[in-house]
Amino acid sequence: MLKLNQTRISRIVLLFALLLSMHVSAQQNRPNILWITSEDNSPYLGCYGDAFATTPTLDKLASDGFRYTNAYANCPVCAPARNTIITGVYAASNGNEPMRSTYPKSELVIPYPELLRKAGYYCTNNVKTDYNFKGDYNSIWDECSRKAHWKNCPEGKPFFAIFNLTTTHESQIFPFIPDDELRHKPEDVVLPPHHPDTKEMRHDWAQYYDKVEDMDAQVGELLKELEESGLADNTIVFYYSDHGGVLARSKRYIFETGTWVPFIVRIPEKYKNYFPAEKPGDAVDRNISFVDLAPTLLSIIGAEKPDYMQGNAFLGYAVEPEPDYVHMTRSRMDERIDMSRAVRDKKYRYIRNYMPFRIYLQHLAYLFNARSAQSWKDYYLAGKCNDLQSMAFETKPVEELYNTENDPNELYNLAGDPVYKDVLERMRKENVRWMKEIRDVALIPETEYVKRAGDGSMYDYMRSEACPFDELLAAAELATQPGNESIQDYIKLLKHEDSAIRYWGATGLLIHIDNAEPALPALKAAADEEAAATAVLIGESLFHLGEKELAEKIYLRILKDEKSTMMERTWVLNSVEAVDFESPAIEKWITDFYTNRNEESQGNKMYENYLLRCVEWAVQNEQ
Hints:
- The protein is of the alpha/beta class.
- It has 23 helices and 14 strands.
- The protein has 4 domains: 1-26; 27-325, Alkaline Phosphatase, subunit A (3-Layer(aba) Sandwich); 340-422, no CATH class; 442-622, Leucine-rich Repeat Variant (Alpha Horseshoe).
- It has helices at residues 2-28, 56-64, 78-87, 91-94, 112-118, 199-228, 256-259, 293-301, 371-381, 387-390, 421-438, 449-453, 458-462, 469-479, 487-494, 499-511, 520-525, 532-544, 548-560, 566-579, 584-595, 597-600, 605-622, and strands at residues 32-38, 66-68, 71-72, 122-126, 143-144, 159-165, 235-241, 263-266, 283-284, 288-289, 326-330, 340-344, 348-353, 399-403.
- The strands form 3 sheets. Strands 5-4-6-1-7-8-2-9 form an 8-stranded mixed β-sheet, with helices on both faces. A 4-stranded antiparallel β-sheet has the order 11-12-13-14, covered by helices on one side. The protein has a two-stranded parallel ribbon with strand order 3-10.
- A hairpin with a 3-residue loop joins β12 and β13 (348-353).
- α6 runs antiparallel to α9.
């Protein structure tokens, strides 16, 4: 027995020594890391099978490296996507999911550049930050500017450098380039079935492919510079896009078109122990998403992964198991309020819509700068769209399920098909499990973040004793449960002491408004609801049940209250537009706000601009 114990102890000591030597080796032989990111583009690259694309540089990078075929942004828009990347925590868990918001980040969550710098790396960012939390972004980098470059790295230090290319950003299709100046011809575009065949749609697709080609050339310049510096053999190169896009129903939407991204990694031969497949040029089908990037960086450089990080390292010395699912989220996009969650395995995508009473393609001012988007809407209003093309301007089902192998554009919802019942239930359960695990902040309306967290973060609030998390999650699931017509359940939630749980009661009634007549007395009794988001949905339900005067009273109370925030008023105008409420009193408030908009815009510019966008759109519709 003693000899057996000694043998076991010897093996343990040997194993510990081996692990320690591996760790020390990783520390002493750490690679440089270069990240090249583009914006707003799905895998419209030749190496991903797109025959219309002209991308020789990235095709070569893929042949020299590893092309990931199941890589996803966890949020289909830049700021919350970058929040997830920089922290290794889902934006929906950080409380930084609403687009262009400045809510605090938890002090427990440390941006990865600080961890890399602590480990001895020289970290540069050229130049975009957009991390969607309150704070000094520049301070987390050694350099953060248009001049930031790995060349400034002190001798003897490894570097981590980002170059962000904006050439494929959505804004690049707004300036019109004449057809005869385009390299990709509009007549050669193969349109997806959900896009109508308009000249504007064809033009914007062609112009966008030109921009992808331009971006590819810029990547080539950076790779050439790295090669000429003599550092290529010591540098791991990543290329990826910050989310999908860019034509309407891609960016901002948690479909494949908004979340699937190109992702290529080139690893020098000296680091072949990091190869994720047998040899360069191979495709890698592992599920990865942006929440995995920070843990992966730490694994590559031989540093420990903090407990708060929610992703799995997929390269380096501490590769973690592949996740079975990828999770994606959508919340407020600029001035338009919505909430959806998606679960993706390698075959199916499940979507849960928590505000199904909002159409997919709400009028978002920035999005509709694109002539292609406006032409789509014009075609719809003229009755020229077919059923698939019309869905974008209709309200959503509570649940969506797509077979992405057979239906890559995700147009045929299988959620109601009994053949897929087991798949639906499996992915529905996974969504609930994940929301509980990450303590999903969107269970509370954005209008209540500051009221609940004060100067602190919603990440911390959701983990505090003050947060009734389990009740919130149960209420949200009950409110959005398909086929649940138990109106009394929603009435009970509407009377709860917690305003966010009351919000889910109001949500349940609005979703099931066709059967909500028995709830009318309870809705009238709740007309004085103080929480703005909850009050808005109560007003919307009352409107649908014929109580338009009472609904108007609720809307005006929030609009006129000097204590109302700009975001609370934005909720009101989202609802007013959704129900097409014709109210002289509300129209007067809108006109007055529009007339005095310069005076009104002296506080928080961002939120007031979002309210102003709603106001401007309402004024435009009145004219």
